[in-house]
Amino acid sequence: MGQLTAQQLNALSVQFREIANTILDYRIAHPLLPADDADLEMLQNSILDSATELATQSAIQAGSEAAEAIQTLINVTGEIKTTIKGLENVTKVINIAAAVLKVAVCLTKVDFGGIKNGVKDLVDSLKN
Amino acid sequence: MIIIAGVGAFSSCANLKQVNDFAATSVKGAAGFESLPYNFMQVCLDNCTEKDIKDNHLNPGECDCTGPSKADSVDYLLYKTISAYLDGLQCLSNNDLTTYQFNGLTDQLSGSGLESLHISAEQSGAYGKLGNILSKAITDGYRRNKIKIYISEANAPLKILIRYLEFNLSDNLIGQLKIRELRLKSDYFDLLKDQGSNAYDKRKIIEDYNFQKGELDRKAAELLCYAKLLRSIADGHQKLADHLKRLHQADVKLMITQYASNIKDIHTQINLLKK
What we know:
Helices cover 90% and strands 0% of the residues of chain A. Chain A has 128 residues and is an all-alpha fold. The two termini of chain A are 56 Å apart. Chain B has one domain. Chain B contains seven helices and no strands. The chains are: A mainly alpha (128), B mainly alpha (275).
């Protein structure tokens, strides 16, 4: 079955289902001997089992056929997440820049207390 | 320059809003997958239960559902990949993402130790607002360009995944429901032709059959509705990809809004079918 496409497997499933339906309609429309009816019912159910299996295999095959597209979309989603992360980091950069500015101003004023506090703020910004 | 930056920021916000609305609606609609009424595993379990009843087995017999479990995993993978992309698109196009808080900068500028700069509270507030406008102008332009690239790159694989998920639900899974309906019809036919059934029994058998069939039809209708919703997402995304350079124009905005509205409507229909 590996050679068939998902579409072909589904088409086969539909055909099997229609054959089983024809058998059932025949059973309903014609009075049959119990033994004959039981034989036909068994055949009908076997065909329905095959139809079920074919539809299941078709769904699994769809996954194999979509594998490349799945990988491509996962890659694009990964790129989007990286971009979002980058944009979120801008906030952090702004905080760091503000802390650096404070230290720079204190340095020009030779304000040792301010420098100490500014460095502490800068370290905090880098930690967050 | 500030005016130009401000106008640019406003215009790009408007463009991204259409993308954001569409992505947000699509994420919400696609999430309906998680409450779909039927899957391949359920088909397998129902068939096993039916076999046990027919064979008069009081205790459940062996039930191998390996294949159906794999089929459900495929559908789940398709859904999660589609959903993760739409979610990423929604986050990236969300204007809150780049609404940076410049309070930190404002406080630092007007705080103690900076008196030598002679910056008043009013001025520092104005710098904060200016920072917001400029940052939005820069980052929104950046986001807009990135979003265009991602929508272009994602469009083909997204359509393929949606097509396969739609195929699995509306062809394979609904096919399973139709098979289930045939099995049901066959069973009730056997019950009806039983010589021991009187007219009242037969009436009850037919009523029960119609009820069971109605339940299967309702499930099929819900699956079909969800498949239709997926198609609307694919079509809407295609329109986004087709008109990336004209997202700011009124006709394109209206078109994208209509797709988002369609998705909302179908989502509502699905919820009504669940009742």
